[in-house]
Structure formats: C-alpha cells, structure tokens
Amino acid sequence: MSLERNEPGSGKPGKVYLIGAGPGAADLITVRGARILAQAEVVLHDALVTEDMLQLCPQAVKISVGKRSGQRSTAQTHINQQLVECAAQYKLVVRLKGGDPMMFGRADEELRALEEAGIEIEVVPGITTALAAAAATKHPLTKRGIARSVAFFTSSTAPNQPEQMALPDCDTLVQYMGGKEAMATARRLLAQGRPPDLPVVVVENCSRSNQCIMRLKLSELEQGLSHFTGPVLVMIGEAFAARNPTDAGT
Amino acid sequence: MSLERNEPGSGKPGKVYLIGAGPGAADLITVRGARILAQAEVVLHDALVTEDMLQLCPQAVKISVGKRSGQRSTAQTHINQQLVECAAQYKLVVRLKGGDPMMFGRADEELRALEEAGIEIEVVPGITTALAAAAATKHPLTKRGIARSVAFFTSSTAPNQPEQMALPDCDTLVQYMGGKEAMATARRLLAQGRPPDLPVVVVENCSRSNQCIMRLKLSELEQGLSHFTGPVLVMIGEAFAARNPTDAGT
C-alpha cells in the first residue's frame, strides 16, 4: 500500500488519533480503535503496546516512542515534537497508548502540543488495566455495602514531587505501576489502621499470555513484590476477599 | 438460525459471559466483546444498553433486565435467577452491562449466584463512562504535577447505607449517576475548602448521538443540574481546567 503523504507545502496537517490499546491482548482494543488502526499511515506506540496489537496495522509505519519510568522526562517533549511532525507528513496519525490514554498517560502534554500546532485530534478510549484485572480475577472493584468508591493512583517518579503523597481514602485502592512502591503503600495503610488481613490482588502482565495473578494480605504486601519484572497492578480492599474456598486458590 | 439449546437433562450448563458494553456507541465495545455477542444465543441486557449495540447480536434472544435506581433491590435477585435459568437452557449466554461490568454493576451478586450454581463464567471488560467522557471532552483525568489520583464513586440509594458517605480525597473526582446528587457533592466539597472556581465537567448521554457536555464551576454545580434527564457523569478537579480559550467554549 502506498502511503498518502501530505503534499509538501499543502499546509493542511493530518489528524491525530490518541487511541487506548487496552491492557495488552489484541482483542481488548475497542472496535473503533481497531478500525482506525487499520487505516493509519503511521503509528507512534508505547513500549507497553504488544506485537499482537501492532499486527492490527500492518500497513502503517511504526515508530516506537516507548519510555519507561526512570528515563529522563525530556523524552516526552521529543514525543510531542514527533507527533506534530508526523501530522505535517501524514493524513492519519495514530498515537497508540497502553491502557487508556486519559489516565496516567501524559495525554495532557501531547494534546497541548498538538492543539498549539493547530492539529485536529480525536481521542478513542481504551480498557484501563484495572478493569481488565478485575475481569481476569473475577473480582469487581465495587461491591454493594462493602466497596462504594474506587481510587486509581500511581507513584510519582518525578524529582520535584513529594514522595509521600497522601493515599486516597477510597474503599478500593488500585496502584498502577505498583511493583516497587506497593511495599511503601502497604506500610502506610497499616500505619493508618487498615487491617493486616486486608485482601490484596496483584496482577502482572494483565491479559497477556504471561499474565500472573497473586492473592495475598496487606501484611504480606508489606514484605515486597521483588520477584515481579513486568508491569504490575496492585489492588487492595475488602472487595478482593475470596467469594468461596475454590476461588482463593486460583 | 436455529438456537442450539441444551438437551433437557443433559446436565451440562452453558457458559455465561459478563460483557461490558461501554458507554453507548456501538463501536466502543471491545473487539472481544463484539465477537462473543455475535455468537450469543441469549443476551440479558441493561436498560442503558443501546439499540445500536443490540444490532451486534441479531441472532440472539434478547431479554431486557433493565432496572434504574429507585426500583426495588429485589429485582437483582430476579436477574441472578434468570441468568442461572438461561445457562441451563442455552450454551452461550451473555450478560451485557452498560460501561464496565466490574464497576458499579452489581457483578458480585451475579458472579456469586452463577458460581453457586456451578456455571462457568468469563468477564470481558468494557469502557467505563468516565474514560469515554475524558476522551469526548479531551480532558485527561490525570495531569502531571496537578492530578495524580482519580476516584470513581456513586451515590447510594440503598436504604441501609449512610447518606453522608465520606467524599474521596483524590485530585480528580468522578461521580457516576451524579445528576441529583452532584449538588450535595458540590456543597460538601465547598464546605471542605475546595475552591468555588474548581472546574467541573458534566457529560450526559456520553458517546451517544444526544451527548451533551457542560462546563461549569464548583459553585455553579452547587445550584444543581435539574435540566438533565439522561445518565449523567460529573467530573470535578483541576484536571478539567480549559487548556486554551477556544477550548472553554466547546
């Protein structure tokens, strides 16, 4: 397929779609997201986007703009610039982000850069990992009379952020990228008086072939999760109590 | 198409899929959800599931099990019973729920009833309305240095619940089914010292043809949202500040 590039000097930039890829499995993207991906001329994707997912856009030029926490934050400025440059070159540009683009995805900075350059944008939501993890473990995040509010949070790695951000006081707590930081979260929750046997579910590589589900207690979470290497989601709360004895062992 | 019913007395119940339909638009279901819907023999769906969505399963028997808040909670027991009965009759049963099935969806009760009856279950996540609303309004729910945690909550209509549940202390607050209750939420947030000009975005009928987006301030939310009639999502926080002057008017 020949790519329809914008004529040099035509002046009309392309349209950029910010699309949520979902947690990893290629069929957990939305129908709308898959349809646009199949039409994309260029796809700028995160490190968390799987190979299976990229097979939905065989026709597109693929640019990996992956960055993991720990790398310099200037990388985001470079991604913003790449997006603007791609929109000048191509008519249909996709920025494909793991999970949902509007939660923990630096979308604000990308939207701002594109808007300042006068580029048309559309956002297509994706399945955020917490909901895929709830589905995979068959544990609803809310439970009548037991869990009526849910908080999603992450740990900041930015040097100018206070490390000890207040923990949300919701019934259900979900910590994204919670591998190393979950130990500190557990310690603080215990200090706040949450019970040591509060159920915890940890999901690594959610929805992928190497998905790993671990059930433990808050007091055990305090001991750390050092053996996980992939993206880890930590879910804490009474909502994660086993429904029946057979459920507890899975 | 002839429906493959289980042989009476065959003893092997069907499989039940709890599927998230997403916010309403038929192409905001996942690829997996759409594929299973197209194979379903019977679909038990909420009142919030759109006609467009039901066109994805022309072959299926459709049973509306919709209930709106305000109806008696015994209705849920009846839905649980219907699910178990359908699994005895059909091989592929879909329980289609608006948004995501694992958040504010009474999934716990349905899972419990099905598990007790020994029925195989699979959960397919869906786009929860808050993420579709963030996409529609182009307002990320998190924002580097400004909004690092997000709470999803709803108002209880159960008679045995305390009406004045503590409001989550997250940076971004999203109240589901927030039409009538949002006024009280605003009043309490103001009393807690949140600023009167805190940005609020209200989305009615998210992702549907009659979607309505309204931008206001916390002090204005306190005056009420009486003119909305459809499902209303209320999003509150600094993350919803307009990025630029043209953005404010949309």
Task: Detail the topology: elements first, then pairings.
Two copies of one chain form a homodimer.
Chain A: E1 15-22, H1 31-37, E2 42-45, H2 51-54, E3 61-64, H3 74-89, E4 92-98, H4 107-116, E5 120-124, H5 129-137, E6 149-154, E7 172-176, H6 182-191, E8 199-204, E9 212-217, H7 218-221, E10 232-236, H8 245-248
Parallel strand pairs in A: 1-4, 1-5, 2-3, 2-4, 6-7
Antiparallel strand pairs in A: 7-10, 8-9, 8-10
What does this structure look like?
The structure is a homodimer of 250-residue chains. Chain A is an alpha/beta fold and 250 residues long. Chain A folds into 2 domains: 15-124, Tetrapyrrole methylase, N-terminal domain (Cobalt-precorrin-4 Transmethylase, domain 1), CATH 3.40.1010; 129-248, Methyltransferase, Cobalt-precorrin-4 Transmethylase, Domain 2. In chain A, 26% of the residues lie in helices and 22% in strands. Chain A has helices at residues 31-37, 51-54, 74-89, 107-116, 129-137, 182-191, 218-221, 245-248; strands at residues 15-22, 42-45, 61-64, 92-98, 120-124, 149-154, 172-176, 199-204, 212-217, 232-236. The first copy, chain A, has a 5-stranded parallel sheet with strand order 3-2-4-1-5, sandwiched between helices. A 5-stranded mixed sheet of chain A has the order 6-7-10-8-9. In chain A, strand 8 (199-204) and strand 9 (212-217) form a beta hairpin. The model of chain A is unreliable at 157-162 (pLDDT under 50). Chains A and B meet through strand 1, helix 1, helix 4, strand 5 and helix 5 of A and strand 1, helix 1, helix 4, strand 5 and helix 5 of B.
